Amino acid sequence: MISLQQKRFITRSLFFAAFLLAPVLDLFRFDLTTTQFVIFGERLSFELTTQWLAQTDALDAGLRILTRFLLPLVSLIAIGLFVFWRWGRIYCGWLCPHFSVVETINRMMRQRLGRVSLWEPQVDQSAEGGLLNWVVIVSTSVAIAFVWALGLLSYLLPPLPLYSDLIHLQLSGGEIIFLAVATTVFTLDFIFARHLFCKYGCAFGVFQSLFWMMNPKALVVAFDTDRAKACQSCDKDCEEACPMRLSVRGYKRAKFTCTQCGECVSACQNVQKNNPDGTLIDWRAGEKTKQTSLIPMVNKD
């Protein structure tokens, strides 16, 4: 049976592959050389040519823009808002390429340095640390950052000529500057500010959280407070597992930036695997409780 985290690995891997291949396959990109969007192999021009406009009226032109651009765009936004309202930042935890890097570097730093960020004390005293481990971490961050920078540039320029110029070392000055600056910025983010960017710097992530907070019946990682005594022998594995460094056992208002990655759920399931009552942390939805409400509820019992 495939575990929860294995399912996430599959979805994130497929989405990251789609992120890199979409420009190459002309699934989606913006071509700076023609200033046109390319979607599923078609250039988004609405076919509003001078010849066509001369032979039609304003109503036909408006209907073409409405049916080919505005309605699809509004439908996409509406679907997105419903997903955010119902499931929160599930895009971040299950698809987002940046969050995949957050977890990858977190895991590497935990294994090699005994901590997942430079701002936290060392929790694993068995980790060796040292210069070699730092070289591995920085090298990995630079490599991923370069792939990111190249992938983003392929969304703006024809990808195949771009890759050919890279292989033959014939990149233009502008392309070199873009790759150098973007790689540097991403590297600094990956090493120093991974989850901090997700918490405070990602406008799309915060936007998802805002809609999620408005729904008291949305999916949320909840803690079984009635069985809190079972946590006495635990060393906070759930909070150590959280990539966003959140108070996992707190109420929803303390988990504003939860990405629904389920790392805390998997950690608790592992700790409580021999407990006949099962895990204390799990996803809950459809019930308005203290754990799922943004505004504190008064107990009327």
Keywords:
single chain, 301 residues, mainly alpha, 3 domains, two-stranded antiparallel sheet, flat
Structure write-up:
By secondary structure, the protein is mainly alpha-helical. The chain has 3 domains: 133 residues, no CATH class; 42 residues; 70 residues, no CATH class. Helix content is 54%, strand content 6%. The chain is built from 12 helices and 5 strands. The strands form 2 sheets. Strands 1-2-3 form a 3-stranded antiparallel β-sheet, with no helix packed on it. Strands 4-5 form a two-stranded antiparallel sheet. The longest helix has 30 residues.
SSE topology sketch:
Elements lengths: L3 H21 L3 E4 L4 E4 L2 E2 L6 H5 L3 H30 L2 H5 L2 H17 L17 H24 L4 H9 L5 H20 L1 H8 L1 H11 L6 E4 L13 H5 L21 H9 L9 E4 L17
Antiparallel strand pairs: 1-2, 2-3, 4-5
Helix pairs in contact: 1-6, 3-10, 5-6, 6-8
